[in-house]
UniProtKB/TrEMBL annotation:
Statement: the UniProt record of this protein carries the keyword Acetylation: no
PROSITE patterns found in the cross-reference section: HD_GYP (PS51832)
Alphabetized Pfam families for the sequence: HD_5
Identification of the protein by name: HD family phosphohydrolase
Keyword Lyase: no
Residue ranges occupied by any HD-GYP domain in the UniProt entry: 148-343
InterPro entries per UniProt: HD/PDEase_dom, HD_GYP_dom
Lineage: superkingdom: Bacteria
Amino acid sequence: MKDLSATKLIALVGMCDGKEQYLAHLLANRMDVEIYSIKKFYSHLFEATLYPDLCFLDMSEDVSRSFMLLGSLKTLNIPTICILPSGIGLALELRCLSGGAYDVMYWPESKSEILKKTDFIFHNTIFEQLVFDKHVNREKHVSDKDNIDTLMHQILSSLSVSIDAKDSYTQGHSLRVALYSTILGKECGLDDESLTLLHYSALMHDIGKIGMPDAVLRKPGKLSDEERKIIQTHPTIGYDILKTITLMPDMSLVARFHHERWDGTGYPDGLDGVDIPLYARIVSIADAFDAMTSERSYRKPLTFEEAGKEILACKGTQFDPQLVEISSDIIQRYISNGKVLTFDDVLSTTA
Ligand SMILES: [Fe+2]
């Protein structure tokens, strides 16, 4: 059985209004205390890089995501104290307890009560079993992770082929957009974990096209206003398809926002500037670059150099100006002595 005298790690998750500082100050001299947003905590759980001994989860902000997280914590046998706003009523308390909370606490709570609840959990015999189960779970979780990553990559790659198969002129489009996005993301300094999420998000950016009629999607000529309106629903359709994948919210956000423009004239929501999520801004450039350098029924593909100039011309209007600068540097690097590199050249450069 786990050595219970070892230093305990307490995670404070999704806190607001200074609760995290208060609790960290109160508990820090007795245990290790770490503070996380719900999103960051989720990604640590998913990556199996964090197994706290006790979790304080604030239920007053993002209630639906907090309950989803509570379910995951229950599955992983991580004891959790839910923090509820005072005067909220019994219904939420019962929902927390039936959803897997070890205990609840109404805020503000006195120091002595907080310490009493914490000590009670650590000295309860049930805690020993929870810790034991948790470490058994952890070993299994870590050993399964490599297989899950491989499976995830294979599923999304084959799904991207299905998306591109809707249109004979977009074969390999999603894979190339994922590749270009990852190159750009890497140049932006994203870490490996973020690059993986960006890669998956880019693979799925056009998944909403699965719901588009073939007659519109494969129409060789110019689209009518009515047909354009139909095509412009693919970001929201994609968002609706992907939004249930709550462990990777970036996928649904990229699907929804990859046709937004920096100047706010894009669709579907007319977001502008940095309100457009970073991954969507990256995929937007990669998407346009691949569209321009791929063959279409009505035009020949542009060279990398020509497409690079087009991207530069849309700096600050369609695209994030900083990302355009970084993209231009990358494209220049791939064009040497008047020779335009092929996709395979790009691939081998990043391998
Ligand atoms: Fe799209």
